UniProtKB/TrEMBL annotation:
Taxonomic classification: Bacteria, Bacillati, Bacillota, Bacilli, Lactobacillales
InterPro entries named among the record's database cross-references: HTH_59_Firmicutes_type
Domain of life of the organism encoding this protein: Bacteria
Record-annotated Helix-turn-helix domain positions: 7-63
Organism: Lactobacillus colini
Name of the protein in its database record: Helix-turn-helix domain-containing protein
Length: 72
């Protein structure tokens, strides 16, 4: 079962901001290179793009910034 409350599923604009990119980053990358996205990691619902953490890690090469712990 898919948990829609999971923080690993997010709006593309939100995801772009979390990873430190412009709001249209996910859409631009998808339009130019859809093969970079793992199967089932991005989908458009009406006008809304939804992506997974897996997709963002694949296209940016960076782990989820929300899960990185800072050393003090």
């Amino acid at each position: 079962m898919i948990n829609l409350n999971s923080p690993d599923i997010m709006d593309a604009k939100q995801a772009s901001k979390i990873w430190g990119h412009a709001e249209n980053y996910v859409r631009r990358i998808y339009m130019a290179n859809p093969e970079k996205f793992p199967e089932g990691s991005i989908r458009k619902f009406g006008k809304q793009w939804v992506v997974t953490t897996q997709a963002m890690e694949a296209i940016t090469g960076k782990k989820d910034p929300r899960k990185i712990t800072k050393k003090t």
